[in-house]
Amino acid sequence: MDEGVLPRDVLYSWSPQYAYFSWLSLTNSSLLYGLMQGVYVLSLLSFLVGYKTKWSNLIVFVLYASLFWRNPFVTINAEVLTRTFLALTLFLPLNRYWAVDAVLETQDRKRPYPIIPLVAVKVQIS
User: What's the pTM value of the predicted model, to 2 decimals?
Assistant: First the structure.
């Protein structure tokens, strides 16, 4: 919305490079904000149970990052770490074992996967 702590015109004037990364800065419609929140909650629930894990992970990552980029001046390092983990888990096989996708999948669970994202997550944790 254009009212509140950081209206869109102020965001565009202070940091125009950040303003265009947020889906929330594209519109002023409260209906679209509500729709985005609904999609975000549904994708979080889908990611939680592991249904369409890769797609729900991507949607969660994009909308979570969009929340941050709407007001990049209010941040803590935990948000940066969360965005980093969400980006790295896009490349991990999260849908192999403890997910609805694992039950629906017909391929072998022990097939190889890229090791670089797993090492990146381990390095990030340490």
Answer: 0.78
